[in-house]
Amino acid sequence: MPTRFSVFIPIWNDARWLPGAIESLLAQTHQDWELVIGDNVSTEDIAGIVARFPDERIRYHRWSDHVDYAGNANRTIDLCRFEWLQYLSADDRLLPTCLERMAEQVADAQVAGVRLSMVLTGCGRFDEQGRPAEQVYYGSWRLTSMETKVMSPAEWLGSVATPGAPPWNIGSLAISADVHRVMGGFFREEVGLTVDLEMATRAAAYGSVAYIAEPLLHYTVRADSISPGLARRNLEQKDLLPPVAAALLSALAVHEHRGVAASAERRQVMVQVADQLVGRSLMQRYRLGGRGRVGALRDLVRATYHHRRWILSPRQLVRAAAALAAPRWLIMRMKDRYMSRERYF
After folding, report:
1. What are the DSSP calls for 27-62, one per residue?
2. Model confidence pLDDT, tens digit, residues 48-95
3. Is residue 128 classed exposed, middle or buried when 0-12, 13-18 and 19+ CB atoms within 10 A define those classes?
4. pLDDT tens, 118-171?
5. Within 13 Å of residue 169, how many CA atoms lie on the same side as its CB?
6. Whole-angstrom Cα distance, residue 16 to residue 49?
7. How far apart are CA 160 and CA 250, in angstroms?
8. What is this structure's pTM?
9. Over the Cα atoms of the chain, what is R_g?
10. In the chain, where are the structural domains located?
11. Distance (Å, whole) CA 34 – CA 38
12. H/E stretch holding 25
């Protein structure tokens, strides 16, 4: 049986970007797909744009009420009919061989008797003019290195908890429809900013993960991204955890419930949670919405709760001391100094 993909685009406006996303799907070398577009009550003519592409594999649905982007993704994925489900943003582009390479991994796993929960690829980051934008997107985050391989649930959990930025993106990820039915929904809206990371980590508790170390998705880095606003809201609302830490702990609970998280991966997650809290303690001092030294102290106490030995690291001691005692200008200078070297804050 051929591998069939349901690519779904939850959309709200973004009319200028949608044609490129549809064209990238039409250009795929693997043609066993459907495209489902869930219109979140756009004020722009999304239906008119879809009508330009008279392909029976493309389905358009306009909802009667507007919800947040995670909720729109959740209801749009429920319209999908095929065995592999792939989220795609209107401003992202699949390279022509993306689905073909994914289908090869699915076929290989079937021959080997391996149950896959997900198959995904690397991605490239580009600005709105098509120029490379890795530095703009990653900032002070160091890109982690991953090779093409099939990973067990524990291995995938460990890779996600590795410090640094992942080389993949949710748009280059296809999840098994069988897994989606049993994993408790696609996005957990209460997670907030990092619903995509949480989903991609939680889904792996139900099977192995095939990763293809090729940039088969072009991700658009946009000036009007909602991420900075969401990160500020995380500080302003005094959330107990930074977004990445909340996502990792949520997914870890599922891995442990299913008995697929080894103690080593649990320790790795807790180290990363503590690291995220120490990093946010510095943000409390210089980011809009931060709570100053009081907020920094609270985050450091929480870091100790999640991983008691973090403070023994010289690097973390320096960061903690800066969060509590350094003037804001010095923290900003230190941050700028390390921007091009490694993920430090």
Report:
1. T-S---EEEEEEE-S-SS-HHHHHHTS--TTEEEEE
2. 999 999 999 999 999 999 999 999 999 999 999 999 999 999 999 999
3. middle
4. 999 999 988 888 888 776 666 656 788 899 999 999 999 999 998 888 899 999
5. 22
6. 9
7. 13
8. 0.89
9. 21
10. 5-227, 228-338
11. 13
12. helix 18-26
Residue 111's pLDDT is 95
Specify the amino acid at residue 171.
Answer: G
| 211 secondary structure, DSSP code | E
Rounded to an integer, what distance in angstroms lies between the CA atom of residue 145 and that of residue 135? 16
- Cα distances from 220 to residues 60, 82, 91, 173, 231, in angstroms, run 23, 27, 6, 16, 19
Least confident of 56-65, 228-237, 268-277: 228-237
Which segments within the chain are labelled E, that is strand?
A: 5-11, 33-39, 58-62, 84-87, 93-94, 116-127, 149-151, 168-176, 208-221
Q: How many residues does the chain have?
A: 345
Q: Which of 202, 180, 245 is nearest to 8 (CA)?
A: 180
Which residue type does 111 have? V
Q: Which two tokens stand for residue 200?
A: 């991609």
CATH tag, 5-227 = 3.90.550.10
